[in-house]
Amino acid sequence: MSNKFIVSDPNYKQKVINSFNRQDVMHTINASIVDVQPGYVEITFPYSKSLTQQHDFIHAGIVSTVVDSACGYSAFSLMPEEAGILTIEFKVNLLSPAKGEWFQAIGKVKKPGRTITVSEGELYAHQGDTRKLVATMVGTLMTINDPSGQIKG
Amino acid sequence: MSNKFIVSDPNYKQKVINSFNRQDVMHTINASIVDVQPGYVEITFPYSKSLTQQHDFIHAGIVSTVVDSACGYSAFSLMPEEAGILTIEFKVNLLSPAKGEWFQAIGKVKKPGRTITVSEGELYAHQGDTRKLVATMVGTLMTINDPSGQIKG
Amino acid sequence: MSNKFIVSDPNYKQKVINSFNRQDVMHTINASIVDVQPGYVEITFPYSKSLTQQHDFIHAGIVSTVVDSACGYSAFSLMPEEAGILTIEFKVNLLSPAKGEWFQAIGKVKKPGRTITVSEGELYAHQGDTRKLVATMVGTLMTINDPSGQIKG
Amino acid sequence: MSNKFIVSDPNYKQKVINSFNRQDVMHTINASIVDVQPGYVEITFPYSKSLTQQHDFIHAGIVSTVVDSACGYSAFSLMPEEAGILTIEFKVNLLSPAKGEWFQAIGKVKKPGRTITVSEGELYAHQGDTRKLVATMVGTLMTINDPSGQIKG
Fold first, then answer.
1. Given CA atoms D19, D22, D24, D30 in this order, what sign does their dihedral have?
2. Closest Cα in chain D, distance from residue A148 (Å)
3. Is residue D2 in a domain?
4. What's the ipTM?
5. What is the pLDDT along chain A (153 residues), one digit of tens a residue?
6. How many domains does chain D have?
7. pTM here?
C-alpha cells in the first residue's frame, strides 16, 4: 500500500510492536502482529475452541478484541513518540460467522487527527485458499499526552 | 426489576444458561451468568492479567465480549423456543479504564421485536465497595428461525 | 430530574438557547427547545410533510438531526463558558416508524468529561395522548477550547 | 465501478429514482440523485443556510439524512421488486466541518443479504476544484417483504 500518511515517530514500528507485546490478551488469543505500516496494521490468530460462542464460531467479542487492537495500533503508528492512545468507542458489524482455520485482522487509518483519529477495520476468516469477510469495524481513537509517561504506549 | 416483557418460552432461564455454558470463551474469561430475567441478564467475571491490554486494564474487546453476551442473552430470553440468535452489530463506548477486582455486565432489552431486538448493555468495575461505569453498549440482535435446529440457541 | 451534574457556566441555559437559535436548520424543522437542565435538553417539533421519506414518515436523518442537537446541547450545558462543542460521532437505532402529530427529542449526558462527553438520546412520537419510542442515539461530543472564540457555542 | 453485485429487479434504477422522488425531505434539501448502479448510489445537494448548525456549517443530521438515503438506496437497488426497505440503524463519524459549495453523498453496499444488508457511505464537500471527506457512515438495512405493498419502495 502507498505510504500516504506522515509518520511523526521514526521508531513507530518498534513502538507499536512493543505495546502489542504488552497486551497479555493477545497472548491468550495467540495473536501475532504481522505487518506495521504508517496507518496500517495487520494481526492474525488461529482458530481455538477456547474462544468460541455457542455454535463453535469465534465469539464476536474476540473478533472485536483483535480488530480493535489492529485499528488502535494503526492510529498509534502515526502518533508522536510521547503519546498514549485510548479507544473512545467502536462499532462492529458482523457479516458472516467467524469460522475458519485462522483469522486476519486489518486496521487502517481513515482520518488522522491531532486529538481524534478514526480507523476502519476488517476481519477475514481463512480456510484453505479462501478468504471471507467476517466483520467490519469503525473505531474512534484519542491521542493522550501524558508527560508522566504512565500511559505511554 | 419489573417483569415488563412477555416470555414466549417458559423454559427461558434454562435455555439461556445452557447456551451460555456452551460459550467456551466464557470459561476462558472465567465468567458466570448470575441473573436471568425476561429481557435482563447479568454476567460477572474477575480481573485476570491474561485479559489485559498494554496498561494492565481489561482489553476493550474483552469488555465487549462479556457485554455482548449479556445483551444477546437478554434478547434471547424473550425469543421463542425454537429460535436461534445472531448479533448483527454493536457499538461500545468506553467511559473509564476497565480496572477493578471484578466486573459486572448487564444486558437489557430496549425494544423487542419479531425479527430485530435492540438491547443495551453496561459494564461496571467493582473495587471493594465501589462500582464504576466502564462501558456502554447498544446491540442489534436478530431472531433466526432454523427448522434444522443447527443454530438453535 | 435530579440535578446530578455540576454546572461550570452559571449562564448555561441562555448559552444553550442562544446557540440553538443560531441553528437555522432548527427553524427549517420548526423545532423548539422546551427544557434545558444541567446535562438534559428537550426539543420538540411538529409533523411536516416536508421532512418525510417515501412512506410519509419523518426521515431517519431528520430524527437524527433533532436528537443530535438534544444530545449535543445536553453536553454543552455542562461545558465551561468559553468552550465550543463538536459532535465526533453518533449512532442511531430506529425502533418504530416516525409517525405522529409531534415529536419529542430528549438528550441526556451519560458521562461528562473534560475533553469527551457521551450523551444518550431518544425520540418519541406523540399522537393524541399516546407516546411511542421511535429512536435511540448514543453520541460522542468533544469540548473545543478556542481562544479566538470563532467556534464558541 | 465494476458491476460486482447481482441485480434481482431489472427495473432497479427506475424503482430507486421513484422512491427517492417520494422522499419530500430530499426536495426540502434540494437534493438530486445523480447516479444509480447495482449496490451504488450518489446524491448531491447545494449548500443552503437553511440547513446549518450554529457555525453556518451543514448540520450533522442533514449530512446523515442524505448519506442515509444514499446507503439505503444502494441496498434497495439489489432488492427484489416486491421488497420494501427499512433502516435499522446507522453510525456516522464526522471528520471535518460540512462547509463547501455543494456536497456529494455516496452509498455503497458492503455486504448484501436476503434479510440484512450493510452499506457504507461517505459525504464529500466540494469547493471549487477541491473535494474533502466530511463524514462516513455504516448503515444496516433490512429487506421487508410486505405482500400488501403498503411499504413497497
1. positive
2. 30
3. no
4. 0.94
5. 445 898 999 999 999 999 999 999 999 999 999 999 999 999 999 999 999 999 999 999 999 999 999 999 999 999 999 999 999 999 999 999 999 999 999 999 999 999 999 999 999 999 999 999 999 999 999 999 865 555 545
6. 1
7. 0.95
